[in-house]
Amino acid sequence: MADIVLDKVSKRFPDGTVAVQNVDLEIADGEFVILVGPSGCGKSTTLNMIAGLEDISSGELRIGGQRVNDKAPRDRDIAMVFQSYALYPNMTVRENMAFPLRLAKLDRQTIDAKVDEAAKVLELTPLLDRKPANLSGGQRQRVAMGRAIVRQPKAFLMDEPLSNLDAKLRVQMRTVVSRLQKQLGTTTVYVTHDQTEAMTLGDRVVIMRGGSIQQVGPPQELYDHPRNLFVAGFIGSPSMNFLHAAVSDGKLRTAIGDVPIGERIRRELEAGDAPRELILGIRPEHFEDAELVDDDTRRRGAEFTAPVDIVESMGSDKYVYFTLEGERASAAELEELAADAGADFTGGGASLVTRLSAESTVREGEDRRVWFNLEKIHLFDPGTGRNLTLHEGRASGALGGS
Amino acid sequence: MSVRSEPVLPALVPAQRAGRRLGKTALSENKRAERKLGWLLCAPAALVMVLVTAYPIGYSIWLSLQRYDLRFPDQREFIGLENYVTVLTNEFWWTAFGVTMLITVVTVAVELALGMGLALIMHRTLVGRGIVRTAALIPYGIVTVVAAFSWRYAWTPGTGYLANLFSDGAPLTERASSLAIVMLAEIWKTTPFMALLLMAGLALVPEDLLKAASTDGATAWQRFTRVMLPVMKPAILVALLFRTLDAFRVFDNIYVLTAGGNETSSVSMLAYNNLIRGLNLGIGSTMSVLIFLTVAAIAFVFVKLFGTAAPGSDDGERR
C-alpha cells in the first residue's frame, strides 16, 4: 500500500494534442479517489499514466514516495481493472486469477491459497473451473476484481469497471467495490464518466475537463459548493438549472422573477469589472410546490408561476418540468456539458427541472405556483464560469432576507 | 445455409387453436416452402461445384482404376486397384513423397516464424504503415514462375550473383543445395501471405488484454506467448492449414529450378511427368488421387484434431 502523487503531470501526444495538463494530485495511502469527467477529459489517460501504460510527457509521478516515471507497468506493483474486464479467454477463472501470481513466481500452494481466498471474498468459488466465455457480465467483472486483489498490490486502478453492466447490477456491484475497498484499505483510483458512481463511491472526487482538474473534494462538498459552472452542471442528476440573470436596480432579473442580491455579491458587482449578466444556478430539489410550503419556510424563498410541461412521478417524489419565457443561459461550459450529454440542455427556450414532494397535485398543462429556496442559489460569471457565491459561510446566505 | 423461420402469421393462430393437426400441417407447409426455396437458391452454386470439382475428381478416380496409356490405347482395361499397388510399391513415389513432406514441413515452419515477425512489424508500425505493408507483400504479388526464373538465374554459376557469392560449384545440380534453394524460393514467396493471415489474427487480440498482462507483471515475451498466441490460435491454425495444403502441392518452383532432377521431384511433379509427359493416364491419375487423399487427410487432421475453424465461423465459444 502506498500513496500516489502526481506532480505537474502532463501528457502530450506525438500529434501535438495535449490530453492532460499540469495535473497536481495527492492521493493518500488507502484513499479511494474518483476521476470523473466527460469523455475526452483526460481521466483515462491520467489513469494509464499512473499504471505506466502511457508515457508521462512532463512532471513527476511518485508511488510510495518513489519516482516511477520510467518504470515499466510490471515494476510498479499496481493492479488494474478494465471496462472490458480483459480476462484471458484461454484460461479458466482460477488460471486468470493465478496469472499475476504465477508471473511473480510464487509457489503453487501459496498461489492456490491466495486464489481460493480471493474467490471466497468475491463468491467465485463455484466458478473457478469455468472459462470466461461461460460467465455472465457480473461474474466476469468479479473475476477481473479477483485478479486485481489476489496480488495485494500497492494500488488498484479501475477504468470504468462497471460501465458494461446493466443498471441494476451496476448499483449492486457499486456496493461490492465500496465494501471491498474498505475491507482491504488499498489505495484506489477509479475512473468513471458516471457522476452517480463518483458521488456514491469515493472518499474524494476529482472532476476533470479538457485535461485539467476543475475541483477536488469530497462528493458532498462538490455538490454543495461547486467552484465553477462546469462542476455545478456535471454533478447532480437531474442537473442544476441554469438561468440567465440580468443585474439591474440591485436585483437579478430572471425568468423565475426578480431575485434580491446579497451584500457581498453587490460589493463584488460594484467593483466594476464584474459582468452585468450572470448565470443563476439552482438545483431541482430546492423547489417546492407553493401549496405545500409552510409560512416559516416561505419567508426564506421566493415564488413564481409557470406552465407545467411534463410531470414524472418517481413514487418518492415528482420531477416536474416547466417551460419558462426568456432566453436560456449560455456559456462555453454549458455547451460542453450539453454536448457530452448528447443533447441540448433545454431544447429551445429556457426550461426548468424541479423535484417536488410526492403529495403535490401538480398536473401537466396547468399553471402552477412554485416556491424556491433563495439560500441555495448559486451565481456564476458567464465569462469565466467562476462561482461568485462560493466563499460565503453558507452556500448563498448573503442572498437571504428578501 | 441457414433458413430463418418466419413468425407465425396471425391468420394461422385460430387454425392452430381449432385443431392441433390442422395447425401443424399449416406450419410444416410453411417450413417446407422455405426449405424448397433454400434449395433452389443454392442450386446454381451447387451445380457449378459439381461441374468444376466433382466431375474432374470422379473422372480421375475412374481413370485411376484403369490401365490406360495413350501410347498403347488398345490395351485400355479396368484393372481395379492395381495402379495403386504399382505406385505405392514404387521407390520413386516414396522419394517424391519424402521430398514433398520435407519441403512442406520445413517451409511452413519457417514461414510461420518469419510470418509472425513480419505480421508484428506490420501491426505495430506507426510511421509509413502503408509503405511497410506494401513492401512486405511484393514477393507475394510476383508470379511464382517469374520469381522462380529469377532465382534460377541468381543461382546459375557465371551469371548469377548468388551462386558466385556463396559457392564455387553449381548449387542447382546437387540434391541438398537444390532442395534448400527450392525451399528458400518457396519461403521468400509465401511468407507475406502467412504474415497477412497472422496479421488478421493479431487484430483480434484486444489491446486491453495486453495492457492487463503488463500490469499483471508479464514481460513482452510472456505477453506474446501466454496471451497473444493463445488468443490468436484459431487464426494461426487457419494460416497453417492454408499453407500446408498449398505447400504440399509444390510444383512451379521445382519445375523451373531443377525440373525434378537429382531426386528433387515433388509428388505433383511426378504426377505431371507421368500424366502429361508420359501420357500414362492410369498411373498419373492414380498419383493425383493419392495427392488428393493426402491433402484431404491433412485438412481432416487440422479441422478435427486441432479444431481449426473456417475463417468467419469462429464465434469465440469453441473450446
TrEMBL record, chain A:
Residues 4-235 form the ABC transporter domain. GO terms for molecular function: ABC-type transporter activity; ATP binding; ATP hydrolysis activity. Keywords: ATP-binding, Cell membrane, Membrane, Nucleotide-binding, Translocase, Transport. InterPro entries: AAA+_ATPase, ABC_transporter-like_ATP-bd, ABC_transporter-like_CS, ABC_transpr_MalK-like, ABC_transpr_MalK/UgpC-like, Mo/tungstate-bd_C_term_dom, NA-bd_OB-fold, OB_MalK-like. PANTHER family: MALTODEXTRIN IMPORT ATP-BINDING PROTEIN MSMX, TREHALOSE IMPORT ATP-BINDING PROTEIN SUGC. One of its GO terms (cellular component) is ATP-binding cassette (ABC) transporter complex, substrate-binding subunit-containing. It comes from Micromonospora carbonacea. One of its GO terms (biological process) is carbohydrate transport. Pfam families: ABC_tran, OB_MalK. NCBIfam families: PRK11650.1 (NF008653). This is sn-glycerol-3-phosphate ABC transporter ATP-binding protein UgpC. Coiled coil: none annotated.
